[in-house]
From TrEMBL, chain A:
<dbReference type="InterPro" id="IPR054383">
    <property type="entry name" value="PspAB-like"/>
</dbReference>
<dbReference type="Pfam" id="PF22742">
    <property type="entry name" value="PspAB"/>
</dbReference>
<protein>
    <submittedName>
        <fullName>Uncharacterized protein</fullName>
    </submittedName>
</protein>
UniProtKB/TrEMBL annotation, chain B:
<keyword id="KW-0645">Protease</keyword>
<keyword id="KW-0479">Metal-binding</keyword>
<comment type="similarity">
    <text>Belongs to the peptidase M48 family.</text>
</comment>
<feature type="transmembrane region" description="Helical">
    <location>
        <begin position="38"/>
        <end position="57"/>
    </location>
</feature>
<dbReference type="Pfam" id="PF01435">
    <property type="entry name" value="Peptidase_M48"/>
</dbReference>
<dbReference type="InterPro" id="IPR001915">
    <property type="entry name" value="Peptidase_M48"/>
</dbReference>
<keyword id="KW-0862">Zinc</keyword>
<keyword id="KW-1003">Cell membrane</keyword>
<feature type="transmembrane region" description="Helical">
    <location>
        <begin position="152"/>
        <end position="175"/>
    </location>
</feature>
Length: 189, 299
């Protein structure tokens, strides 16, 4: 079981468990009750667009898949580092619907053999004082962490720890704090 | 969840061990003369070497950074560079390495350290000036592949004799510019320089087998990490295009510009001194472009 096999997605011993994304619905309820954070109805999936035709076709498939279904707003954008973000929009109350869309995008890309290119998925929330917050799902680790950006490329670490305390029991949390990577410029945040 | 990405391939581990054998011979050759003084001296030299090796494995990253004139930079200093590395960590599942920048003008990059937990990736100012964000990500992907493949330590162990010898040679070359007194010192130290030159040559040869293969492997794995072989091919072309316009030129082209990274040459993404430690850039680009064509065809 080599590094290349893992990167190529061959014979994974512990495949990323995308179904963990569904735990976000419960976490959203807990977060609202415990800290007053409400979902914004925005969620996004980040992936590295590979060169070439196969990936371009797949990207089209994903967009069609989401567009066909009740016509939710799906926007494709590129960030300044060359990564592609798919932004899905739902009624703020409909977190399960949003999570289902994110799951569909992830599993379509994974099914197309582009699992190695998936980075993360996130669902965003706003706080009682309009603080911004995202719960980020790390595809490669199958874990979640909070990301709370402040103006001027700073992070609200206190809030992130507080959120971990609130929803840590609902989600498989990332224990390694050094992997709570900031996702600056994520659409929908 | 355990990170399966970090499991080293057993076959690769064996091959790495085999490739390290000549490197160990170089190490042995440096202590062998002590046995001429007597068995106790010899044993003392071996003990000193083993102790040095143990310390070295833990502090290798600092040595390499120091030799390359690089310093670690924080996320507040270099937010963009850190963001590129973080994205690569997100897509590879690797822990984040430290990030360093070398003031060297030559465009190059290297990874050092003793494993994924303690790795450092370094880019030069020259590299950042010449490459766009996508190409920079491709080069850093190559370096992250070195980290993931656990060949940073093997690479560092192999590079160390060359590193020391390179530093001695650089210092010796500087003496010549130090006026008559410097020249006198240089002549007196000529035997030391000769030994260093010998060690430099032997060390580079020994590191060759290891590093040529690990470069190709890092090209491939790094490309899978970013999905963009074209970017890496483009970056390699830009890096190897010397200021004089001679692609992949020998040691004669612009030696002043490449002096600073010579001690860590075998670790760099393109060799800083002797091309023999790496496969020719043209070959690497050809391989990458084949992958790019395969992706374009949708295979």
């Amino acid at each position: 079981m080599g590094f290349l096999d893992t990167l190529l997605g061959r014979s994974k011993p512990a495949p990323p468990d995308l179904d963990r994304l569904f735990a976000l619905s419960t976490a959203a309820l807990t977060l609202e009750a415990a800290a007053g954070f409400t979902p914004t109805g925005l969620g996004s999936v980040c992936f590295r667009a590979a060169e070439g035709g196969a990936f371009a076709r797949l990207q089209q498939d994903v967009q069609e898949l989401l567009d066909a279904d009740r016509g939710p707003q799906v926007e494709i954008s590129q960030d300044s580092y060359g990564y592609t973000w798919l932004l899905a929009q739902h009624d703020p109350q409909d977190v399960p619907g949003l999570v289902t869309d994110l799951h569909a995008v992830n599993s379509t890309l994974e099914g197309g053999g582009f699992g190695p290119h998936l980075l993360c998925s996130l669902v965003s929330f706003t706080g009682p004082e309009r603080q911004r917050l995202a719960l980020v799902y790390l595809y490669k680790r199958g874990t979640f962490y909070p990301f709370a950006p402040l103006p001027g490329d700073k992070r609200d670490n206190a809030l992130e720890i507080q959120v971990k305390g609130a929803v840590g029991a609902d989600l498989p949390f990332e224990d390694d704090l050094s992997r709570w990577f900031p996702v600056w410029g994520a659409p929908g945040l | 969840m355990a990170a399966p990405h970090l499991a080293p391939e057993p076959a690769t581990a064996r091959r790495t061990a085999a490739a390290l054998a000549p490197v160990l011979l170089v190490y042995a050759a440096t202590v062998a003369p002590a046995f001429l003084l007597g068995p106790w001296w010899g044993l003392a030299a071996v003990a000193a070497l083993l102790a040095a090796a143990a310390v070295l494995c833990r502090t290798m990253d600092r040595w390499v950074l120091w030799a390359a004139g690089a310093r670690p930079v924080g996320a507040d200093e270099e937010p963009e560079l850190h963001a590129v590395v973080e994205r690569l960590c997100l897509s590879s599942g690797l822990p984040k390495p430290r990030v360093a920048v070398s003031a060297a003008r030559e465009p190059n990059a290297f990874a050092a350290g003793s494993g994924p937990g303690s790795a450092v990736v370094c880019v030069t100012e020259g590299l950042r000036e010449r490459l766009g964000p996508a190409e920079l990500a491709a080069v850093l992907g190559h370096e992250m592949a070195h980290v993931a493949g656990r060949d940073v330590l093997a690479g560092c162990v192999a590079a160390f004799p060359t590193l020391c010898a390179g530093l001695v040679l650089d210092g010796w070359a500087l003496l010549w510019r130090g006026g008559p007194l410097g020249a006198l010192a240089a002549v007196l130290l000529a035997p030391l320089a000769a030994v260093a030159a010998l060690l430099y040559g032997a060390g580079t040869l020994a590191a060759m087998a290891l590093s040529r293969r690990r470069e190709l492997r890092a090209d491939e794995a790094g490309t899978l990490l970013t999905g963009r072989p074209g970017d890496l091919a483009e970056a390699l072309a830009k890096i190897s295009a010397r200021p004089g316009g001679k692609a992949g030129a020998g040691p004669g082209a612009g030696p002043a510009g490449r002096r600073t990274l010579r001690p860590v040459s075998t670790l760099c993404v393109v060799p800083a001194a002797l091309t023999a430690s790496h496969p020719p850039v043209a070959d690497r680009r050809a391989r990458l472009l084949t992958v790019a064509r395969r992706l374009a065809a949708g295979a």
